[in-house]
Design goal:
- It is a single chain.
- This protein has a single domain, classed as Macrophage Migration Inhibitory Factor, CATH 3.30.429.10.
- Helix 1 links the parallel strand 1 and strand 2.
- Helices cover 29% and strands 19% of the residues.
- It contains three helices and four strands, in the order βαββαβα.
- By secondary structure, the protein is α/β, with parallel strands linked by helices.
- It is globular, with a radius of gyration of 16 Å.
């Protein structure tokens, strides 16, 4: 946890998808200080006729490289989210040549009782995983100029 859903235009190669997922996970681990094996990623590829991502009137250009990322997560501090947005765009540009203007992120917050990782138990509630917000979501890195 967090759970990441990527919506993208169809047509990327397996290597491109792997780079996208790896770069995103690295940014998430650094910004949210989550364990390396805390990785849940789902990719949905869409034909152009089924995927519209505009700019909310901000004048942001989009291309076929556009990535719409929805993250379902426990509560995170504002600063950790801002660090993540920065690191994500930096990583995707470096590793995947995806421009920051093609990166759209939406975070959906839920709570500990909303997660079961298997075996019919809510591991944050049973104590099998660390619950609560102590340290969760604190920014590990501060972007340049930030």
């Amino acid at each position: 946890m967090p759970l990441l859903r990527f919506d993208i235009f169809e047509g990327r190669s397996p290597d491109q998808l792997k780079a996208l997922l790896n770069a995103t996970h690295s940014a998430l681990v650094a910004a949210f200080r989550i364990p390396e094996r805390d990785r849940y990623q789902i990719v949905h590829e869409h034909p152009a006729s089924h995927f519209i991502v505009q700019d909310t009137g901000l004048g942001i250009p989009r291309t076929k490289n556009c990535v719409l990322l929805q993250i379902t997560t426990r509560p995170r501090e504002r600063r950790a989210k801002e660090v993540f947005y920065h690191l994500l765009c930096e990583s995707l540009k470096k590793e995947c040549d995806i421009d920051p203007s093609d990166v759209v992120v939406s975070m959906v917050t839920n709570s500990d009782e909303d997660w079961s990782f298997g075996k019919g138990r809510a591991q944050f509630l049973t104590g099998e995983l660390e619950g609560g917000s102590a340290g969760a979501g604190k920014a590990a890195l501060v972007p340049a100029g930030g």
